Amino acid sequence: MQKIYATSRALLLAGGLAGALFGCKNVLDVPVESQFVAANFPTTLSDYNASVGAIYANLSSNYAVPYWRMQTLATDEAILPARDGNFDDGGQYRQLHYHTWTPDHPNVLTIWQWAYGGITTCNRLLNVTNTFNFTAAEKEARLAEIRAMRALYYFFLLDLYGNVPIVTDYPTAPLPATQPRAKVYEFIESELKALTPKLPAKSGTSATNTQQYGRPTKGMVYALLAKLYLNAEVYGAPARYPDVVRMADSVQANTNYALDARYRDIFLPNNGPQIRETVFAVPYDQQIPGNQFTRFGFFYYLTQAYGFNVGLSIAMSTTPEFYARFNLPGDARTKTWLSGPQFVPDGNGGFTTTPVYYPNTTDQIVINPVLTLVPPKPMDLGNTLATQSEGVRSIKFYPDPAIIQATRLNGNDVPVLRLADVLLMKAEAILRGAPATASNGEMQTPLVLVNKVRARAGAPAAASIALGGLLDERARELSWEGWRRNDLIRFGQFETEYPLPNDALKMDKSTFRRLYPVPTIELRLNTNLQQNPGY
Amino acid sequence: MTNQYFSKPVAQNVRCVLLPLALALGAPAAALAQQTVKGTVTDEKNAALPGVTVRLKDGTAAVATTTDGTYSIKTTGPADILVFSFVGTVSKEIIAGAQTSLNVTLLPDAQQLNDVVVIGYGTASRADITGAVTSIKSEEFNQGVLTTPAELLQGKVAGLNITKSGDPNQRPSVVLRGPSTIRTVNGGVTEPFYVIDGVPGASIDLLAPDDIATIDVLKDASSTAIYGTRAANGVIIITTKRAKPGQSRLTYSAYGALAKVSKKIDVLSGDELRQYLADNKTRPLTTPTDDDGSNTNWQDLIERTSYATNHNLSFAGSANATDYGASVNYLKNNGALINTSLERLIYRGFINQRFFNNRLKLGVNIINSSTTQNDIPQAQVLPGMLFYLPTVSPYNADGSYKENYTRTGQGTLNPLSLANNNTYVTKDSKTLVNGLVQVDVLTGLKFTLSGSTQRAQTNYSSYLNSQSGLAVNLGGVARRAEYVNTNDVLEAYANYDRTLGLHSVQLLAGYSYQQDRTNDGFGITTQNFANNALGFNNLYLSNPSSLAQIAFDNNPISTLRLLSQYARAQYQYGDRYLAQVSLRRDGSSVFGVNNRYGYFPTAAVGWRIINEEFMRGRDLFSDLKLRAGYGVSGNSQGFDAFSAILIYGTPPGSSKYLNNGAISNVVNAVRNENPDLKWESTATANIGLDFGLFKNRITGSVDYYIKKTSDLIDDVLPVSSTEFQYTTYTANVGSMTNRGIEVALSVVPVQTGAFTWRSSLNFSHNTNRIDNLSTDRFTIPYIQTAQLGGKGQSGNYSQIVQPGSPLGTFKLWHYLGKNEQGVSTYQKADGSVTATQPLTTDMQEVGSAQPKLIYGWANTFTYKAFDLNFLVRGVYGNKILNATLAGLNNPADARLQNIPRFTLGESFNDINGYLISDRFLESGSYLRLDNATLGYTLRPHTQYVQALRFYVSSNNLFIVTKYRGIDPEINIGGLTPGIDNQNFYPKTRTFTLGLSASF
Questions:
Q1: Could you tell me which residue, B539 or A522, shows the higher pLDDT?
Q2: Does domain B116-243 have CATH number 2.170.130.10?
Q3: Inter-chain contact B548–A34, Cβ cutoff 8 Å?
Q4: Which residues lie across from B900 on neighbouring strands?
Q5: Residue of chain B whose Cα is closest to the Cα of A208
Q6: What family is this (chain B) (predicted)?
Q7: Residues of B (927-986) whose Cβ lies below 8 Å from A
Q8: Shortest CB distance from B911 goes to which of A3, A311, A377?
Q9: A368 lies in some domain
Q10: Separation in Å, CA of A338 to nearest CA in chain B
């Protein structure tokens, strides 16, 4: 026994010695050497700016593809048909086209998470801003910037999903509950109204414009409020057409906003702060991913003629029905589409007389605007050279010659709100009953406003304008800019069918589909969420 | 007689190393001596055997042989029986008689090759083991061009499922007793924990198979839990070769091997494809881009007859108080695909010196392993060599590689160009230094301090040259990256062994500290070189035209610390009753501050029935033992060290924004904090029976286990975006259970003077089931995995992880045959039939990748100097998703990509035969003649050469399987097992000629 006792003593001693050497508890608090953590971030102004950058990087990451698809592929403005089974991708594009999406649709999930990811980031950064070492004026300006961006994310949710939780604090109380659409509308309105005095106005100096580019300004808030008021009835609130006019005039009051002379320039790869009519745009670059208009919407047999050599998708085009609106003589906006025999571009928005041939042939490429489906595959055009050439392609977001195979990105910034849209919103509000007003000394009737937009595009002036013509004018002016679904719902035409030859499937015309469903996963994760009616 | 228990025949159980010590402390004075017997004990090679216990069978006297093998013992009379015993040999009993000189030769114990088993922090006699442990000695290792220790065990250990493709640079996937995690981070998550010569967590890349003496596989938690949190997937303990006391040895072994791909996919030749299109009245291929009149067999161009060579020189000695040894190993293994190879050079040396009458032992062990791996872009080459049109020549008329970048379909890049214009080189240098201090404090009490540092420096270089189809018009893209990983381990433990009468106790207590620091380094990618002459060697000469063309690696440094205390007590009574308890407490920096410490207890009992009174005279049995154990072990392998804390970083996909005209970095949360993150723990109950029949002509064991892993960690758990900053979370969410039975049998059917046949068979059955995936806080109904892509199937999942189903459950479209038009039809969710591509919601569960049975059957025949070995192994009852064949089976795209002969039996009109459905979910069962080896051993009667063995060996001689792909040995590890998706590096058939010489 003695020995066992001695042994255990020895063991304890050995263990104790080792424990004393290494046993201090904080050995397990390993320093994080190469990553930012709460202890070392954010501390400097650069840290702060990099944090705020997350709001914008998040915005650009999904705006021009998944968000755009939800707003566009569900309309006649664009279609992503399968090509002999390619690009069926679990049916996600035809579900949008035929309004048969489910709460499991990948875009429905991605965009919900994208918007709330942006909102949560804004909420967290409001805390950071409040505790950061800023002067009172700096603090107010930065808080206003973040709240305006949060309102923009909420606007996307309001428009797509309607009834969503309103989360304004971080850390978030668990499981926030769904709020009715009208509540969300009110929240956004009150936020935006509170922010206008605190945000900067667009200036005449290019340095300031560069600084403000892609960020909230007074003009952005006015234009967004105009959007909100124009759709007030859709969003479950009383009509506000005079307020649309008021907001449009507030934008116009700042004469630094003006329609740019050349329609094409607004969307070129080098677009940016120099575009005077942009009220708010999402900046893209080869290093800022998210814009893939060329990858999905251009015709890849034309790549070399346009000065680059990258493999592209074959899939996306507009529908013949939508393209038929581009029928005005001299309209620069028609040139954003590729249809018929193809020629080498002249680099200035026009074309040379040199034809472009299919590879290794002397057959000129001819794009056929008609989309003839080939059953039995659903919404499928087949994959022959001829059927690959079906579908009007878009060069509105003109191919970026800096595109590379690995990423296939465009550097073209994508406008969210711009002056032409504001003018057309004002025209529509007046047509819907608001009194016409003068702006900068000019009496602006709907016809005056529409013709301003037409004149810039080189299209003939209209003799008269009614709501139907206005919707077509919006289609011409704002094609592929992500507003078509919003417009069609407001005009009650979201359920209008536009069948293609041999179309075996039918659109689901249920009006509950004017709202997207809450994604399944989110419903499961937050039991206080309510699914939208009909799903 | 105070020191009587020292001299008592400590019996079979005590380790041999203790015996000289016991002698040194005072030999017995036997009063009744009537006679002294002296002699020498030698082994089968006539070399002196020191440390052999020589004792009187009925009495207390015992001595040990000295370093020259001699002994001297006093007997009480001629009737005394002398017992000579030594670890690993057959004991001998000899009646003393009248002789005073008695020389004895002890022969190796063939039936009891596994006599001494390495357990964590110690060794034990196999007879005393209470857990499920399988030991494999070097003689039993698999033969052939095997580069990792796991391959040596393939088919030899019940319950151990090892899969390996033909890739010389790919590690085998190892799964013991079924999967026990749903994490995805990296391979270490599901692999066993390796301990090399007492160094826990050492890299298995450090070892040449030639240097390994034994491998012990600890399977149940009662055995593994002493390694606590790293042991949930089992522990594999490797012991390297040493010299026996008093001996020196010098061995040289070498082999050369030739390998050929054992099976190709039978795709059409150019002429056949042209004919096929003509027969089906479709437009001919476009000339010259898609048809230049060629008949190119792309598989033949990419595959080659490869060779491998291996040399190993090793020496060791043990004299007086010193053990030493060194070895050098060179391996060159060229892959069966061009431009793939592994070259490895390992140096190893150790020295142990004992002081103070052997009471202090100091040792140093150093290993360095340098490897160079060459690889090609397999992700493109492997599909390319099947899909690429056979009607196209590899080269243009000017000798440049032919490409058509506008062709759509799959396999659109020239595979030969891919293999020749893209270079991936990985150079890796690993060094392990291990220092050891061992003190015999008191008799039976030993204190060990072991420190080790492993430093791995890895240099990744790649160059996609200006002709590369992966970097068109970029003027060459070069990447250099350099990373250092270090692992520091300090172990301090004390063993106390004591035998008192019929009681025998072994105690262990210890402390361990470990730090693993990984990813310390950097990587840069740049592009645009004036020419390709310099490859990746000088990035300064690149000429990128914009910042976007330079990329830096984002590989954060990850430092993980483990702090542990452990204790174990083993008790034996009367050679019949065995018991063991152990406890380990692990603290890990990985886990949330609220749950950093975990306790891992075990308890086990054993009953050596054979030694019971009632078994006496029952000669049928030569061994019979029942054992049962329960234990809990953890899994903290394969973790990012900072899994539980809030991390800010540049989020992938949204890392840049425009800041005042300048493109700037974004920093945002990339990980949520989880202060409650805790250990995955695996509890195993194991019951086993060991038996020997007919004087151990038949031995074997049967084990049944239930292994339940709870607090499963999901490292990509989706969380509500209305609540969390980042959309996924690392949290504990569920549990899964593996149940199984393992049987191992060894038989010596024939044993005559010249001819012996030994045969061993093992098989095991395991069922895996996810029990649940929910906690109070999180509910996940299922996790979808295995996005395989494929034409028009982007984003579709092929497997599902959900409660009630095993890991690796396939969820696919259900194929219903072809309709009258010859078009494949599928079942929709509502039960109706569709001849078009169904929706993802139409998929149904259709089988699992988990095998029902895995087995191995090894045989050794020896006749005089000849030996013949063969191993048959296989699996039964698993499913493989042959997505490769699905993708190839596309008649409508035969103008864009080649088709297999299989498709000739299909309707040309089948517009959706390529869809990944259960039609391509195939039986993965196979039986493989894995190895056959014929050897001849020469024992020249000279003093310089002990033995010379020549052998010829062949691996993968034949396989019996219904699987239609290249080979059914598809990766079975990880979260998405059993999927063949155009990514299988072909297996080879190998012929080896080898020699080993010992001096």
A1: B539
A2: yes
A3: no
A4: B267
A5: B660
A6: Belongs to the TonB-dependent receptor family.
A7: none
A8: A377
A9: yes
A10: 19
Alpha carbon of B965: minimum distance to chain A alpha carbons (Å): 24
How far is Cα B721 from Cα A243, in angstroms, rounded to an integer? 34
Residues A521 and A386 reside in one and the same domain: no
Q: CB within 8 A of A173, min separation 6: which ones?
A: none
Among A378, A394, A410, which residue terminates a domain?
Answer: A394
Domain limits for position A326: 299-307+317-394
Query: pLDDT for A55-79, tens place per residue?
Result: 999 999 999 999 999 999 999 999 9
CA–CA min distance B260, chain A (Å): 35
Domain boundary among A362, A394, A426: A394
For residue B394, pLDDT beyond 90: yes
Using one digit for the tens of pLDDT, what is the confidence trace for B231-245? 778 889 998 888 877
The CATH number, out of the four listed (2.40.170.20, 2.70.70.10, 3.40.50.150, 1.10.1760.20), of the domain defined by the range B262-998: 2.40.170.20
Of A34, A57, A116, the CB nearest to B666: A57
Q: Which residue has the tokens 């008949």?
A: B295
Instruction: Please tell me whether residues A54 and A192 are part of one structural domain.
Output: yes
Option in A30, A301, A522 nearest B559 (CB): A30
How many folded domains does chain A comprise?
A: 2
Which residues in B719-823 belong to E strands, given as ranges? 728-751, 755-772, 783-787, 797-801, 809-812, 815-818
Q: Which residues have C-beta within 8 Å of that of residue A137, sequence separation ≥ 6?
A: none
Whether A191 and A65 map to the same domain: the answer is yes
Cα atoms in the 13 Å half-sphere on the side-chain side of B709: 32
Å from B899 to nearest chain A CA? 17
Which of A288, A388, A523, A524 has the most B C-beta neighbours within 10 Å, making it the best mutation to test the interface with B?
Answer: A288
The nearest alpha carbon in chain B to A274 belongs to: B661
In a domain, A91, yes or no: yes
**With a CB-CB cutoff of 8 Å, which residues 856-895 of chain B face chain A?**
892-893
- Residue B524 confidence class, pLDDT cut points 50, 70, 90: very high
Chain A CB contacts of B781 under 8 Å are 524
Residue of B nearest to A93 (CA): B792
A135 against B24, higher pLDDT: A135
The backbone torsions φ and ψ at residue B649, rounded to the nearest 5 degrees and listed phi first, read: -160, -175
- CATH superfamily of the B4-105 domain: Carboxypeptidase-like, regulatory domain (2.60.40.1120)
Whether B101 and chain A come into contact, CB under 8 Å, resolves to no
Q: Where are the domains of chain B?
A: 4-105, 116-243, 262-998
SS3 state at B50: coil
When comparing pLDDT for B787 and B719, which is higher? B787
Instruction: Tell whether A283 is covered by a domain.
Output: no
Q: Evaluate if pTM is beyond 0.90.
A: no
A369 with A513, same domain: the answer is no
> What local confidence, expressed as pLDDT, does residue B966 receive?
93
Please tell me if the domain spanning B4-105 has the same topology as the one spanning B262-998. Answer: no
- Taking CA–CA distances from B784, the nearest residue in chain A reads A521
Angle at B838 (CA atoms; ends B834, B843), nearest 5 degrees: 110
Q: Which residues of chain B make contact with A91, given a CB cutoff of 8 A?
A: 837, 839-840
CA–CA distance, B161 with B851 (Å, rounded to integer): 9
CATH number of the domain at A523, please: 1.25.40.390
* Chain B nearest C-alpha distance from A61 (Å): 5
E strands within B173-275?
Answer: 173-176, 193-196, 199-200, 212-218, 235-240, 248-261
Does a structural domain hold residue A534?
yes
Could you say which residues from 702 to 731 on chain B have a Cβ atom under 8 Å away from some Cβ of chain A? 718-727
Strand partners for B919: none
Looking at the complex, report in whole angstroms how far the Cα of residue A521 sits from the nearest Cα belonging to chain B. Answer: 8
Q: Across the interface, do A287 and B547 touch by the CB < 8 Å criterion?
A: yes
Query: How many beta carbons lie within 10 A of that of residue A204, not counting itself?
Result: 10
Instruction: Enumerate residues 6+ apart whose C-beta is below 8 A from B171.
Output: B148, B150, B187
Of residues A14, A41, A165, nearest to B492 (C-beta):
A14
